[in-house]
Amino acid sequence: MRDDLIESVTDLVREVARTIVLPRWRRLNTGDVREKSPGDLVTVADQESERALTSGLTALLPGSTVVGEEAVAADPSVLDRLGGNGPVWVVDPVDGTNNFAAGKRPFAVMVALVRDGEPVAGWILDVPDDRMVVAEAGSGAYVDGLRLKTRSDDPAADALTGSISRTYFPDDLRAGIDANASRLGQVTGGHHCAGYEYPCVATDEQQFAVFWRVLPWDHAPGSLILREAGGAVLHLDGSAYRPESAERGLLIAANHDIWHTVRGTLLSP
After folding, report:
1. Most buried among 101, 215, 260, 263, using CB within 10 Å?
2. 3-class SS at 114?
């Protein structure tokens, strides 16, 4: 991939965050926020950010298309672009919208470039902290220019820290996971922002995260970043994650040994 494309997208994401997203934080009016579905918010910042990213990204890569969270909300057939042959940008204009709308952190702007169904580049900008994580397939992952490498050891289950986003789990699976989670060291409910969870695993702030709902804009950027740093991103049955996959349940971990430890602990009878 052209180095100038990586840099240009990095600059675009920062510019959109600086000029559209951050100025709206803690300054939203009542009419600037609405529910797309119960508990799932969208703000004027999401909409304006996605429009700016869509315009900028397609200009940077002629012939590309965009799968954006808000575009899919308006027209679910937009998701079909992921199955096409050309390059596709996957865009989360504000990841962690509920945090953003509540005036809390974390929230992020995320972009992935997908070719032939696989992410080949990913960008996550932690907007409040202005921390940029970038990865290119085969070239590694970097946070603000510094190479990221996940931990390579596998401590005991009771030494592991991570998060489980329980909201969308089926009741029976949630009950089993909840019963076993105490066997792990420390488990939180997550930060409601996949764009925060993935870098946390890559930098060893936590060693794993578990999700049920797997939407491409939430996971395509982070999945590449974590894999390029040495981590594991697999469905609960061990199958590989792909952005177009409709399969539910995703476990991410700092390495494959930790992945197996966490899965074995949480899903044991």
Report:
1. 101
2. strand
In this structure, the number of other CB atoms found within 10 A of the CB of residue 239 comes to 11
State which amino acid sits at residue 223: S
Q: At 91, list the tokens.
A: 């865009």
**Alpha-carbon distance 128 to 182, whole Å?**
32
Condensed to tens digits (0 to 9), the pLDDT of residues 147-180 reads: 999 999 999 999 999 999 988 899 999 999 999 9
Residues 6+ apart with CB under 8 A from 228: 135, 136, 137, 138, 139, 140, 141, 148
Which residues, other chains included, contact 266 with Cβ-Cβ below 8 Å and sequence gap of 6+?
164, 176, 177, 180, 181, 184, 210
> What is the CA angle 235-196-175, rounded to 5?
45
pTM: 0.96
Domain that holds residue 87: 3-147
Structural domain tally of the chain?
2
DSSP symbol at 170? -
User: Which residues pair with residue 233 across a beta bridge?
Assistant: 252
Backbone phi, then psi, for 165, in 5-degree steps? -85, 95
Query: Domain of 220: which CATH number?
Result: 3.40.190.80
Q: In the structure encoding, which two tokens stand for residue 137, read together? A: 């397939």
The first and second tokens of residue 37, run together, are 């579905």
